[in-house]
Structure formats: C-alpha cells, structure tokens
Amino acid sequence: MTAPFVSAMLIGVRIRPSARGGIEMVMPNPSGRRGVYITPWDDIQGLCQPTVHDTVLYRRLGQTSGLVPETVRRVAWEIAAEGLGGAAARRAAALAKAADEAEHLLASFLLLISLIEEVDPTGLIIDAQIRRTPALEERARAALGTIASGMSWSRAAVIGEIDALGRHFAPVGVERSDSRARLRVLLTRVQALACSLRAWLDGRDNDDAAGLARTIADAASLAAEASDATLSGIHDQTRDMRGLLRRWRAHPDTIAEHIGRLAWVLDGWEAICLMWELPVMTPNRPGDRGTDRIRDRSAVLRAMARLIPALPCQISDWTGYDFGANTPERSVPGFPSVESAARTLAAVTRNEHLRAAYR
Amino acid sequence: MTGTGGQDSQLFESRLLKARDEEITQVVAMIDTLSPRGAADALIAPLRPRLALLRPSRPLGFCRLLFTPFNPVIVPLRGWRPQHKSVPRSVLMPIAATVARELGPNARLIDAETEKPVSSGTTAEANACARLWPAAAAVLQSAPAPEDWDKTELPLAVYAPLARRLGAVLQQEPVLATLDRIAATGDLRTIEVMLKQVGADAVPLISAVALARTPAIAALLVKANDGMAKLVLEILSGPSGPGTQITLAPLGEVGLRLGEQVASLRAMEANITSAEFRRQLHEVRQHLDEVSLARFTSALETEFLIQLRALGLSRNTEDITGIETAARALRALELEARVLGGGDVYDRLLRQGVEAILACGRNRGINKIETIRLVEILAGSAAALALL
Predict the structure, then answer these.
(1) Do the domain assignments include residue A189?
(2) Which domain, by its residues, includes A254?
(3) What is the pLDDT of residues B85-137, one digit of tens each?
(4) Cβ neighbours of residue B13 under 8 Å, at least 6 residues apart?
C-alpha cells in the first residue's frame, strides 16, 4: 500500500508488513521495467537521506498492527498533526480530522435510519440531506426498542454497534447516492482525471507525453470501473441491516475488511489526481512561456505514470469481474537520471505541498 | 525638467529605493497605467534589479511581449556598445512603436489582449507570442528607423543592424522554445542550422539569448563551429552572464539556476581543449563562485537570520513557512555552490544558521518541531533526528 512519504526518492514507494516484523519498502524498478525491489528501511538510507517526517512515519507504521490503507492514512495524519510535514500539512490534518468526524457522524446516522426503515418502512429516502427532526428522533427511539428486543440486544448495544460500524462506512458512504464521502469523492476525481487526460490528448501529437497520458487515463478508467463494482458489493450489505449488524458483532474483522476494499482499489490514486489537479510548480526561467508549461506537464505525466498502482489481485473475487484481462500494458518511465541537489530539495517542497492537499 | 522638478524626482527616487516591496509593486502598477510613460519610466529604472526579484504581475502590453525573448539580455543604455551581445533598454519603446505601426490592426489587437496584468506562461500569452514574433521578425528586416530614434540616445547608424539582429532572433523563436529538448538530445544539427540562418551578425545575440534561457546549450554551441568557444566564453564573462543571473534570480530559484550553470560549465570543460579557453572558463567558474557566496552570505542574513530573530510568541504560521522557504532556498544554493568551492565557508555559515535556530528554539520563538524542521533543512535529517 502507499504511504505519503515526502523524500524525493520515496515518492511512489509502497510499504508492506514484513515477515520479520515491522514494515518493508516495495520500490518500483528504477529503470522503469516491470518488477519491484523489496527493501528494508536501512537500505533505503543508503539510497537517499529520508526526511525526519518519513523516518518517523516509517517507525510508527512499523509499530502499528493490522496495516491497511485506512490505518496508514490515520497514522500519517497523526504525524502531520504534530507538524513534521510542515505548517500546511498540520492545518490539513486538523481539517481532515474534522471531516472524518463529520463523515462518521453522518454514516452512523444514516445506518440508524436505514435500520429503522427496514423494520418500519415509510419510504424515506436515505441520503445526506435527511435532517434530524424531533419527529424523526421520536420515531427512532420507538423503533430502537423493537429492534433491540427483536435482536435480543440492549438499545445501547444497537447504538454502540451502529456507531462502530459507522466509522468503517464513513469513507465510502452508506448509500450509493452518498457522493460526499471521502472515497466516493476520490472515485469521482479518478473518473475526472481520465476525462481530463483524454481532453488534454485531443489534438496532440502522438509523442511520449501523449503515450503516458493515455496509459494513465486507461489505468484511471480501469480503477474507476473496479471501484464502482467494489462499491456495489459494499452497499449491498446495507440492504439487510439487522443481518449486517449481527455479522458485524460476530465477525467485525470480516465486515471491516469488506468495507475497506474500496480503499485498497483506490490506494495510490489520490497522489496521482493531485499531481494533475494542482498547478505546475516549476519556477519560470528567463524567457519562459507557454511551451515550457507543456514541458512541465510532460514531467508531471512522467511522475504520475511512475505512481500508477496495480489493482488488488483479489479484485476478481471481490467483484466477480475479470479486470485482469482488460489491464492495459504499461510503459512506466524510470526515475530521472541525475537530479541536481537543488532539484532534490525542490522535490521535497513539492511533495510536502502535495501532502498538505490530501483529504 | 526644471531644477525643482529634478530635485523632486531625485527625492522620489531616493524614497523609492528605500520603499517596501508592496510599495514598489503599487508604484509600478500605477506607472504601468500611464500612457505615455515618459519620465515615469526613468523613475523606476533604478528599481529594475529589485523588480527582477519581485516579479510583480504586470500588464504585458505590446512592447513587453515583443521583447520577452530578449529579457535576460536587456541592459541599461549606459556602457552599452553596438558590438555587445545585448539590447539597450532605451531602444525598446521606439522599436516596439515602429513594429506596431507596421503591423497595424494586428498589433492593436495583441495590445488589447495583453493589457491586463498577467503572469508569464499563460495560454493567452503563448497565443499572442505565436502571432506576434514571426510577424515582427519580418517587419524588423526592413522597417524604417523610428521617428523618435533620438530618444534612444544612440546614433541612427545603430538602428538598422540592431533591428535586423532582433528580427533574426525572433525568427528563430520556435527553435529557442525547444532548447531544453535540443540540449537533452544533443541535437547539434538544429543548432548549426539555427546559427547559419540568423547570419553571422546575429550569432552573438542569439547565443546570449540561448545561453541565458538554457545554460545547458553551451556545450552544443561550442561544438557548432571553431569560433563559438571564444564567443560563448565572452558571453559567460559579460554583463548578461551567469554571475548576473545568479545575482538577480529570486532566492527561491537561485539554486536551480546555479545547478544548471554549474552543469553547463562542466559540459563545456569536456569540449574545450585550448589552454587559453580553459583559463577563461576557470575565471567564469571563479566569478560564479564569488557571486554565489556573496548571494548566500547576504541572503542568510537578510532573508533568514533577520526573520528568524524577529519571531515573537505572537507570530502566525505564515512566518515560519516563509522562514522554511528561505532556508530551503539557501540550502539549495549552498548545495550547488559548494561544487564551485568554498565548502568550509558554507559549513561555517550553515553552522551559524543552525545556532541561530537553536537559540530561537531556546527563546521559544519557535517550537520543538519547527526547530527540528529548520535544522533538517540547514544541516540534514541526521542532525534533526538527534533533536527528536
């Protein structure tokens, strides 16, 4: 899975739990060819001088059990909140925390309403627009008693389990129409990225940059398709709320893993989207004009192409579709040859800027 | 100008020189709205080095757009000679007026499109450039001298060859726009064709423009023909050479620029065999070394230490971001500059910076994490990790 490292050489490096404890780094082949290098952190230090932020991130992730994309995100925001990623990332961490809390609250509320509608249907449309009215609260109180006794749970247990489940549903939303949840927004951005790249390609010569843009657009479309299919499977669970709650209480890890699949499918795409969405940060040079911006776009495309994640190998099992058969052949650029010291330093600034724009 | 007027303008000039960045930006924005600019233009002349650093967003206008390719080689009239590989500022307005007159309605359209303040690199600018430069290049080959040429304070005989040189360079703009690719791929043939097409008289000017825009092109220019090494070395030692660019570049860009210059000098070294040229190249390196150290020393004090010492407990987060940005720029400059020499001096200056950071941390001007980040920038992550 990806982690928001900011050192120039660590962008695009993935992590995975190590059999020897802690985590190890999965580095793309620097030549751009297929294959990766599995490297312990100590070896990374021989390749580059990781920033303090990245060293602390590595250490904390190594001490965290049950690593999945969502836990990596949580740990990374905790470090950003301490200020190690810079002032902008610290502000972004506070915003992300507030947004997460709001999404959690909304997801728990919508799960509760879904449960109530299941036992006492009134045709209420369940989406983020529903307002907490006294009448709705009164109805919820009455329905909760029935639900709790029917499930042989206490009312507090029902509410407690819904709240816990809501934390997992928060990033994906409770309903398909819930387009404001974080990963749903990211899915929309991935779709928009594919469209934007194709628009950029329109009328361009078939040069190297065009080839990269096409590769990224195809991969983005595929990821969006796989995300859609994964999301359907997640939302199908809420059609039987009482069954979902029982399964959740009996096997919370299984349910959490199921809901967490979308984060796996979209893992790595936020950075790619941001690279395209944020303005190009290369300073002008004397006499620079529009043509140089196109040169910069080509550099951005190379950096984006290096980050393209593979779909999880379980994607066919999760969705019932064979995405592997449609996977486009990728020509991924290698790392730039010799970067000057100033460029390496500038890359850290750019990566911190990117980090602060994450959600 | 009357005696009193002269005194007034001197007073105004001296006040402008002491003005804050925002005040200068406001004054320049006001002067940009004047038509004709006349004496007002002369008032901001002493500010040009600061304007180069400030880079305020200004209306492009016809004249500025026309001369964009020459920006790095535009110099004050004082001391300029026709054989110099540069363009005297006094000729810009009269020549732009001549080109505008010859182009007629097209020029007025471009002027209208670019009258709002814009930053360089926009699509609107690129579109206007694509229409203007080829047309201006053709006009400059034969256009009569401007009626107000006397305002340039140059002999009339200077006009025709200068205009032809400017036109020849503008004609090559499509090639100049792809210099990065040409340098990266070592496309010597394209450089040879470009030099042949501009003609011998314009070779020095186009070489100066090319070197300022893409320093890495030096190695190819030197290979292009036997006389080019001498010319390139003259340009590098001249007023629009790398030393001036390092002095004038904004601090945030100076490290990148220096890195390009250093790499270019290295590449040139590999292509020069003459002992005399090697000696000249060594002098260029030495000058660049001195300029870089001077820039670093001055920026460390004025753009880092003074800001750091000024931090109080009631500061906002923007202050620390600005200081971090300055520290990064200083480090980028130092990392590139120490290749030229002076490693011990840079080490001492950086230690001075780190001591100031630690002192600021002890005085609670900055917190522990801010201290760690600043130390990391100036002294590396190992030194910063030791503070965790």
Answers:
(1) yes
(2) 8-356
(3) 999 999 999 999 999 898 887 777 666 665 654 444 455 666 667 778 899 99
(4) B43, B46
User: Which residues of B fall within a CB distance of 8 Å from A56?
Assistant: 388
B122 neighbourhood in chain A, CB within 8 Å = 290
What is the average pLDDT score of chain B? 85
Quick one: average pLDDT of B131-144? 90
Residue A104 counted as domain residue:
yes
The answer to whether B373 faces chain A, any CB pair under 8 Å, is yes
Q: Which of B195, B140, B197, B136 is nearest to B164 (CA)?
A: B140
Tens digits of residue pLDDT in A235-276: 999 999 999 999 999 999 999 999 999 999 999 999 999 999
Query: Distance from CA of residue A224 to its chain's centroid?
Result: 12
Specify if A38 maps to a domain. yes
Query: In this complex, do B126 and A341 lie within 8 Å of one another by their Cβ atoms?
Result: no
Contact A179, A185 (CB under 8 A): yes
Which pLDDT belongs to residue A71? 95
Q: Is B212 on the interface with A (CB under 8 A)?
A: yes
Which range (A340-349, B87-96, B275-284) has the least confidence?
A: A340-349
Query: Distance between CA B224 and CA A340 in Å, rounded?
Result: 27
Q: Do B321 and A86 touch (CB under 8 A)?
A: yes
CB contact under 8 A, A288 and B120: yes
Taking an 8 Å cut-off on Cβ atoms, the answer to whether A342 and B373 are in contact is: no
Facing B376 at nearest CB: one of A51, A283, A284: A51
DSSP calls for B245-306: HHHHS-HHHHHHHHHHHHHHHHHHHHH---HHHHHHHHHHHHHHHHHHHHHHHHHIIIIIIH
Residue A155 vs residue A207, higher pLDDT: A155
Band (B42; pLDDT cuts 50, 70, 90): low
Q: How distant is the Cα of B259 from the closest Cα of chain A, in angstroms?
A: 6
Number of domains in chain A: 1
Q: Is B101 in CB contact (< 8 Å) with chain A?
A: no
Q: At B60, is the secondary structure helix, strand, or coil?
A: coil
Domain ranges of chain B: 57-231, 241-388
Considering only CB atoms, B71 lies closest to which of A50, A86, A286, namely A286
